[in-house]
Design goal:
19 helices, mainly alpha
Length: about 350
């Protein structure tokens, strides 16, 4: 992947897990329900509230059906367009996702979250485009992230995406470590844990691994929900093949999540780290199973994706029937999810 396409997608795909640690689930849901779906006191809003719940729990097919019906009834619903974009994003249908997110932005240009999601969809399109198209899409991705931060300087997800874009992108598309440092400073004022985690990534990028490790550890000490930061530290160790420390950090993250029902996504992150490292497959299976069974799943780690990853693990461990069971469960949530359709068992 070129520096341009990597910059456009890394903020969303994360350094290691496929879905980076975001706001704790309860804060994410609070942010989601602060929009039109929170006002589901009348019949027209009720389908959107149900669609949000379906999206967060992983029922992509059900959410998509509700949202298409809502758009048939009101084609100018920015919230329905944005939510359908996010469902399509979950299904890796990035062209359709970008189209619906763009529509939401056009209808409601002052909504920071709509710009954030449009930028994310554009970033994924960039990763699949030719170089010239990717260059243009990467610039547009940055612009959308910048608009999101300008509209809501307190949106930590938008700051994270923008900061990671600046960190990875060449100057030709608007990147730069000095810009990333500025975003890290903003983040630290809002959430010290996430600020230190961001600084850890910057130090790692600058090949100062001692400073990076210390920043990731400091993030843990400042965290209200440290399971996420433990998994970020584990991801750092994975990238540098420090296997015993990686495994210990994942286990510490698991222990922290056991006492924090808002940290379910951290279990997914830890499982993915272990799977990518090809270490402790039994623990990876356990963490995936715990996440899938949790009532606190979110779209940041789609249940359908977790099921496909679990199916692959079971296949590697020689459990063909278990792998097929997980694949079928994934398709029951999202029958058009291509990774599940293409999974060879």
């Amino acid at each position: 992947m070129s520096a341009v396409t990597q910059a456009a997608t890394r903020s969303r795909t994360g350094r290691d897990t496929g879905h980076r640690s975001k706001l704790p689930a309860f804060l994410l849901l609070a942010a989601l329900f602060a929009g039109p779906a929170a006002r589901a006191s009348n019949a027209s809003d009720a389908p959107l509230a149900t669609a949000i719940a379906d999206l967060q729990s992983g029922k992509a097919d059900e959410a998509a059906t509700l949202l298409r019906e809502a758009l048939s009834a009101d084609a100018r619903s920015a919230e329905a367009s944005n939510l359908l974009c996010r469902v399509e994003y979950t299904l890796q249908q990035f062209d359709q996702a970008a189209s619906h997110c763009e529509k939401a932005v056009q209808i409601s240009p002052q909504n920071a979250r709509y710009h954030l999601w449009f930028g994310r969809a554009l970033g994924e399109r960039a990763s699949r485009a030719s170089f010239l198209s990717a260059f243009s899409l990467a610039k547009k991705t940055r612009e959308e992230f910048e608009i999101a931060v300008r509209l809501d300087p307190h949106d930590q997800d938008a700051l994270t995406d923008l900061g990671e874009f600046y960190e990875e992108a060449p100057g030709a598309v608007g990147g730069g470590m000095d810009k990333a440092e500025g975003v890290a400073k903003q983040m630290e004022a809002l959430d010290p844990a996430r600020g230190h985690q961001m600084r850890g990534g910057l130090a790692e990028k600058n090949k100062d691994l001692d400073a990076a490790e210390q920043e990731f550890k400091t993030a843990i000490s400042h965290a209200n929900h440290p399971a996420f930061q433990w998994m970020a530290l584990a991801s750092f160790y994975r990238r540098h093949e420090r296997w015993p420390e990686m495994e210990a950090a994942v286990k510490s993250g698991e222990a922290a999540a056991a006492h924090d029902h808002h940290a379910a996504v951290a279990l997914y992150n830890g499982a993915t780290i272990l799977a990518r490292a090809n270490r402790e497959p039994e623990l990876a299976v356990k963490l995936f199973e715990s996440y899938i069974a949790s009532p606190d799943k979110t779209e940041e780690a789609p249940a359908v994706d977790a099921l496909v990853r679990l199916a692959k693990l079971r296949k590697q461990m020689g459990d063909a029937s278990g792998a097929e069971r997980e694949r079928e469960a994934a398709l029951s949530l999202a029958h058009e999810y291509k990774p599940a359709q293409d999974l060879k068992l």
